[in-house]
Each structure stands twice: as C-alpha cells, then as structure tokens.
Design brief:
Radius of gyration: 28 Å
Shape: elongated
Oligomer: single chain
Strand content: over 45%
Length: 371
C-alpha cells in the first residue's frame, strides 16, 4: 500500500446527481422553416458510477431549422425534459440527448423516451405544442443496479485516500502501535470486478515516499482472483525495486474487534526488517536498499484504494491506535511520538475522521460507511 508523500474513498450515502431540467419557457430564436422526421438510431448505456442514464437520438432528415427536446415518461406521467437543442439540419446527422438522474426512477420498469420537435422556439418546453413527437423508445431500467441498500457502492472510483498522522523523524529503526481491528467494506462495481482494499498500518518511510516498510491488517479484493474478498494481516517492504516485497496471511488474520500490537524493526547492518505481531515474529524481509540506512519519517495510517471503499472504523466502532511509539538508532526503548492536535490529516475531513486522543493515541473512522 503506497504511502502518500509527507504532507503538513466516495459517494456520500446515496448521493444522486440533480437532473438539470431546462424547460426554457419563452426562449428566443428564429422560427423554423422545416421539420425533420426524427428516428431513433442509437442509445447510450447507463453510467452507474455517475448515477445517471444517457439517452441520445440521432436524425438525418430534410434541411431546416428546428428545436429538439427529449422527455421521459413512466406510466404516462412526464418525469422530466432534457435540454433544448436548436438544430440546423442540412441532411447531416443531428443529435438530441437527455441525462436522467436515478432519483427520478422510483421503481424498476419500462420508461418511455420521446423526442419532441418544436417549430417555434416560444413553444419549447410545452410538449402539447410540439410540432412532431417521435414514437416511444421504451427502456427497461432496473433499480437493483443502484437503488438498494448498496446503491452507493455500485462503483469503484480509483484513487488512494488516507487518514493518518505522519511525523518527520530522522534515523528511525522501529515503530509500533496497538490497533483495533475494524474492517472496512469494499466498493462493488456493477458488471466489472475491480481491485479494492481498506487497510490500517504502521509505516516507516523515506521523505520522498518511494521506499517504506509497513505492517498492519486489512480487507482486499484482487480482481485476478475473482470477486472474493479476503481479510488479512500483512507486512511489506519497498526498497529500490519497483515492486514491494509483501507477505499476506489470509488464514490467521485478526478477528473483528480484537486489538493487536504491530511492530516493525530494522536491522540496518544487513537491511533486514523484522515484523512482530503481539510480540511474536510474523515475518522477516531483507532488502539491500535498507543496508546502512534509516527511516526518515513515520506514520500511523488508514488507507483505501477507491473513493467508495470504507475507511477502517465506524462512528460506533472506531479504529483506535494506542501505545504508539518509535525508536531511532540510538534508542533502546520506544519513544512517545507526542501527537499534536494539528497533525491528524484526512483527504476528506468530513468523511474520514481522524482525531488525536492522547500523546500516543489516535482514532480513525468512516463517517459515512456502507450499511
């Protein structure tokens, strides 16, 4: 899990785009000299991540100017009109479109789309005055694609997000924390299996963020292995190589609500990282890059791969990091990091909450987790 550089994931709940209805009453423009005979030629697909459905009509008709607008009906009731298009047609293909917000769709069923053509701009928006109305394009829309308890996880918008405390500390060779196990739920993209993860971890890294050693736990879906979701504990070292060396334990992983002590320790004489889980060696990973080197910064972090993944912790079960500490090359015992109130950082402070609760403790939680 790549850390972001040292600095000084979501659709919130069931967030639906607002449909812009351009009724354009009294809109000005020249009167038309002719009317085309529109026919449906193409239909665009639902865009689940944008929570909208786009419908387009295309026409190649006789020359003339006219105004085009698409309306959607259900059960004979007009639900909305798309933007008005002034089309100057000279035997070329013209397009008229509408974007339907899913908030208009209250039940699965057939929704009828019509093209309304006006010969006078002053009539636009009043479908009763339309000079020409196309036959209906009937589209079956299933609300199961979005309008369920999982509607806000129906897509995976890639982009790592963080909630964390990071501190610059030279010559670091060890870090630890007692972390509560609060797995975050992962996004679910309709029709496509996408990678996703939500993790909590301790981290030692270089200033540029390109080399690190971290340990923690998380939940992951790797599309290479289908849609299965795995909880795990892990450790990972990134040195000069492009790909980090990682070790995942998907068998003996921490159970929800348990607290476990995670510790990462570097032996700079041979570049070996020793990772401990509740004081027991979990894994050792040698890396030549870390020979005679020390960490330059430390962090206690939560990270997600997609905007719609849940960060660890909820309002009722927060992810606590306690007894946080670190060592430099000259220390025998762990030092208190002395967290300050200004140090917690979140990419979305109102969505992914992080708070200092003591000199060596923080809590993290998702303020809007999936149900």
């Amino acid at each position: 899990m790549k850390p972001n550089r040292l600095t000084g994931c979501k659709i919130l709940g069931v967030q639906l785009l607002m449909l812009t209805l351009m009724l354009m009453a009294g809109c000005k423009g020249p009167k038309n000299t002719g009317i085309g005979n529109l026919a449906l030629a193409a239909q665009q697909q639902m865009d689940c991540c944008a929570n909208k459905l786009e419908i387009s009509f295309f026409d190649s008709s006789t020359a003339g100017d006219y105004y085009c607008q698409i309306g959607v009906k259900h059960g004979g009731q007009l639900l909305g009109l798309g933007p008005l298009h002034m089309l100057h047609c000279q035997a070329s293909t013209m397009q008229c479109d509408i974007t339907v917000d899913y908030s208009m769709i209250h039940a699965s069923g057939n929704y009828d789309f019509y093209v309304y053509v006006y010969s006078d701009s002053y009539d636009c928006g009043d479908i009763k005055k339309a000079h020409h109305t196309s036959s209906a394009l009937s589209v079956y829309i299933s609300t199961s694609d979005w309008d369920t308890a999982n509607c806000h996880i129906s897509c995976c918008t890639g982009g790592r997000k963080y909630a964390q405390i990071q501190k610059v500390k030279e010559d670091v060779v060890a870090i630890k924390a007692n972390i509560a196990t609060r797995y975050g739920r992962l996004c679910n993209s309709v029709g496509i299996i996408r990678n996703a993860f939500s993790v909590a971890y301790i981290n030692i890294f270089m200033h540029d963020g390109n080399e690190w050693a971290q340990m923690g736990y998380g939940m992951e879906r790797d599309s290479a292995f289908g849609d299965a979701i795995f909880p795990f504990k892990y450790c990972e070292v990134k040195g000069a190589e492009i790909t980090p060396t990682a070790w995942y334990d998907r068998v003996d992983y921490p159970q929800p609500s348990q607290y476990h002590i995670y510790a990462s320790e570097l032996d700079p004489t041979d570049g070996t990282w020793l990772f401990k889980y509740d004081g027991v060696i979990f894994r050792s990973i040698p890396d030549e890059f870390w020979i005679n080197k020390f960490g330059e910064a430390i962090g206690w972090s939560a990270e997600i791969l997609n905007f719609e993944d849940d960060m660890v912790g909820t309002t009722y079960e927060k992810c606590e990091f306690t007894t946080c500490g670190y060592k430099t090359v000259n220390d025998q015992n762990y030092l208190n990091p002395y967290f300050q109130d200004y140090e917690p950082y979140s990419d979305e402070p109102l969505e992914w909450i992080i708070m200092r609760t003591g000199d060596n403790s923080i809590l993290i939680y998702d303020n809007n987790p999936q149900p």
